[in-house]
Structures are given as C-alpha cells and as structure tokens.
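Format notes (please read before filing issues)

Several people have asked whether sequences and structure tokens are stored in separate files. They are not. Every record keeps both together, in the order shown below: the sequence lines, then the token lines. Line labels are part of the format and must not be stripped during preprocessing.
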Amino acid sequence: MATATDKGFYGTGRRKEATARVWIRPGTGVVTINGRDINVYFGRETSKMVLNQPLDVLEQKGKIDIEVNVRGGGLSGQAGAIRHGLARALCNYNPDFRPPLKKAGFLTRDARAVERKKYGQPGARRRFQFSKR
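Then the structure lines:
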C-alpha cells in the first residue's frame, strides 16, 4: 500500500477485470474519473451509489476531493474497483477509518470473476445438447 504523494493519499482497487487508481485529498467533494465528472462518466445511479458507499459510512461526503484513473472491465466492475481503491485511500488518509470500513467489507477484494470456457463445451458450464439416438 502506498501512502501520501504530491497528489494526495493513494489507494489501488480491483474488481473483475477493472483496476482503479484513486487519489484523495481534503476538499469540497469533487469526484473526477478519467478526467470527467462522475455524472458524465457513470450514467446509472447504482454505480454512483456504490462509489460513494465508503464516504457514507464515514460521513465524509462533501469533505474529500477524489481523483480516479480506472481502466479495464465494464462500468459495474469499474465502480466496484473505485470503491475498493477509495476505501484503501481513506485508510491511508486516516488510520481511524479502518475499523468501520473493514466492518462494512469495503477493504476486502471481491475475487469473483468470469469462469473460463472449457474445451468440448459451448461455455463455462453449458454442455452441447445430448442426443441418445
């Protein structure tokens, strides 16, 4: 885990195929994702809600500026990766934030990913149709 940099406090988050690099610093609550505003980047309200969960638990909404660089995966995976990275960055910012974030499960990396396709089958679990005759 990295600590404070010239950009602020840093945390890396991952989910599915997405990786998010998150920097936070005290501010007015501005969230920038890949150089764009959160409302422009995420259309769905659920994605915005997932991203803001760590701030809601700590009651820090509107007090911290967030700058994110995220790549890979889809929008849902990216939102989860940002949440994970934000929680880690908040722990670097203030170690007292760790227990409530840990209790809420935001510091645990969600290891669920797409199962690979196997040979001799059309998908990961699906089999070709069986014909007895």
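For reference, the curators noted about this record: The chain has four helices and six strands. The chain has a mean pLDDT of 92.
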